[in-house]
Amino acid sequence: MEATIATENTNKGAWTGGGKEPLGASYGKMMMWFFIISDALTFSGFLAAYGLMRFKFLDSWPIADEVFTHVPFIHGHYPMYYVAFMTFILIFSSVTMVLAVDAGHHMKKGKVTLYMLLTIIGGVIFLGSQAWEWKNFIGGTYGAVQLQDGKIVQFVDATGHQIALEDFVVQSNESRVVHTKSNGLWFEKDAGALPPYTINEVIESFKGNANVSLRTEKINLETKQKTIVSREEALKYLANAKGVIKGANLKVNEYGETLFANFFFFITGFHGFHVFSGILINIIIFFNVIIGTYERRGHYEMIEKVGLYWHFVDLVWVFVFTFFYLV
Amino acid sequence: MAHAESHTGLIWKVFGILSLITAVEVVLGISKPDSLHLSNFLGTSILNWIFLILTLAKAYGIAWYFMHLKQEKAGLRRAIVWTSVFLICYLSVLVLIEGNFLGDVLSGRYTKWFYR
Predict the structure, then answer these.
(1) A259 contacts in B (CB within 8 Å)?
(2) pTM (2 d.p.)
(3) A40-140+260-326: CATH homologous superfamily?
(4) Can you tell me the ipTM of this complex?
């Protein structure tokens, strides 16, 4: 009978699920674990789908080191450094979170406040970094040409290093008219920003510059490098050109496989949204700590529950980091 | 948990180890030594296996020490870890085998890399 009787709530204001603690975990903590497991499976589904597509296009997938090469305030080719910094920031904000939990166990309000604040700041820095990473990815670095069948070809110099379109393309005085609805029955929606050069300018400049060569998406599985084709071959490729690509969106990107950008936007976006919600929750809890809610409740278990979520976000990033940037 | 002793020392130690693992990953990711990168072991390069193992080590550090799984009762810990590890391994193995098959079919017959 005891289970059906409403008992006096010992923790002022907080519902504890009837005070039952299966496996030594309180109601709130148990529910947080339920959420984390289901969310972990969601992320696994996304990453497994990414894995499937990578194996499907094993011989043409973009090479991460050639895509994510930016570091703020420095020009040049610096793969990995910035994302390593982001990983470090997120791990550090996890540490301050767990320190806040630890301080909560000892009812040290001041320390909890400080560590929560540091956690929030870490989260904001991470989110800002991710936005910056997206900006570079969307804006693009080199530019490329898309062929009729959707493949991407990029341009390299005599040493085999990728070069940007503006390094060799000469602008002609060809006038470019915006295609409007009145010009055709089958009006194509504006594909976004106008590419920096026309396809004819690129092809003419390619013909005029003997040092430039062309690189296809195909990976030589022996050397794990993209294949560079001869100039005669390259002209055949360019004869099938469809348009100039700069940057990335959901339909096409200059790095190669369309799915690469789609998965990047979707998975890092979904993770970023988790970080964003984590920051919001952290801010709410931060103010609750300041106004003394948990001091009155008699324990800081809420910090622990929010901490679980925050560590989970960090845990997911560890895997996203591996599968997008390392492997 | 009211009388729990402070784990600050342990927390910083775990942080040190996680940062070290990340640093090793980054160094390997930038240098990509040919002996590891161009090798093949059980379907992928040894370098990729190293990354995978280091990632799992990091995940262990975060789950055990930051998410306090170590201090939970064994039953709760097993319910969480065994369930997710089993389901995730199951899904990834099947899906990756399928992806490998799709890749073989495409690259053998249906992807062309020459133009006229």
Answers:
(1) none
(2) 0.90
(3) Cytochrome c oxidase, subunit III, four-helix bundle (1.20.120.80)
(4) 0.93
